[in-house]
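Troubleshooting: if your tokenizer reports a length mismatch, compare your output against this known-good record of 363 residues.
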Amino acid sequence: MNDHSQTINEKIRPPVSSIGAIGWIRQNLFNGWFNSLLTLVTLYVLGKTLPPFINWAFIKANWMTASDVCRSSEGACWSIIPANIRFITFGFFPHDLQWRPLLAMVMLVGLLFYSQDRKHWKKSLTWAWLIGLFVMGLLMKGGLFGLDAVESTQWGGLPLTLILSVFGLTAAYPLGVILALGRQSRLPVVKSLCIIYIELIRGVPLISLLFMSSVVFPLLLPEGVTFNKILRAQVAIILFTAAYIAEVVRGGLQGMNKGQYEAADSLGLNYYQTMRLVILPQALKIVIPPTVSILISAFKDTSLVVIIALYDLLKTTQSVLSDPKWMGYSTEAYIFIALIYFVCCFFMSNYSRRLERELDTGL
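Known-good structure output:
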């Protein structure tokens, strides 16, 4: 009986060509004439470009050499990164105090990593963020508890990029939700103001807002009154991003079934309770993918502050490339910067997909 069953199992076992690696290749790469052609073209292009790139980027590359050694080499000059890593990362922050922005970045990354688990979304997490933000601000600014004061004009590099992006996106999201609710309001004045704001902001590029915050806005202030340039850029990024988030959230609100509102009314919930407990949780879950796309785009757009002479990560890198010693190695420098942006954007995208899976109710 056992021999007979074993014989039957052997007969009904799927062919080797449809399972394992061979099966995956056939199903995904050669499952039709068009896909087969694309696969062959892709392999040809990779065969022509990948070996020279590996030879340039790794085999003949220079990692810890002087700039004059790089000029006599045919490989990549990655030496530009370790030789200038402190200026690229921290800008003009005093050299002997650079441990402070480093510690602030470590705290920020730690809080972000800890906050990604929904099990930690408690009141204690709010206090942890408030305390962490105060400590990070103290480390950057100084002036208390024996820490030397550092002017914000000396802030730069990666800490400035993280400040503009993290705080900008954090403030823009709730503002965008409020604007979306205002645009859906039954009060004509509130609705009109929100529509005017959203359409006006979405009708101009971020560069124009940055220029206005840096050049035009100070001209409108009374004599002797000034605002920090970083703060002005931060506000411009928040206002710009919030307008786009508002439209995405409005799409989620419009996608809600009227039965949800009627069910909330039948329970005796007021407008605030209906939005907080019934409508917004569902609407925001629906629009997670487009919302994250806007946040990722806004994160990359923070590099535009280079136009108003803020020394973010991109500006410090450009300053290094203006040094005669390191001219001509922009490819290596920009690849390094691109990898940093890629890691941050990939983390946001990956977390959004995980959050979407966790919140999926199957409805």
